[in-house]
Amino acid sequence: MLEFERGFESVNKTFRIPVHIVEQLEVLAGEYNTSVNKIVIQCLEYALDNTADINHNDNKDKT
Q: In order along the chain (63 residues), what is the average pLDDT of each group of 10 residues?
């Protein structure tokens, strides 16, 4: 289940996102009764966390 963090410092940025992805994000936001912004934040955090794990494991092999 998706869980959303509240009350964090933020900054405004502009990104170009393909229409089909925005449509999927809007559906998710509707299903969970939340904003597209919160869905995007959670997706980005998930991607960064998992990318960090991959990079961390690659670096361990090189030492």
A: 68 95 97 94 91 64 54
Q: Can you give 12-52 as a three-state secondary structure string? A: CCCCCCCHHHHHHHHHHHHHCCCCHHHHHHHHHHHHHHHHH
Q: What pLDDT does 8 receive?
A: 76
Closest residue by Cα to residue 25 from 4, 40, 41, 13: 40
**Residues in the chain, how many?**
63
Segment holding 60, helix H or strand E: helix 36-62
Cα separation values, 59 from 49, 52, 56, 62, Å: 15, 10, 5, 5
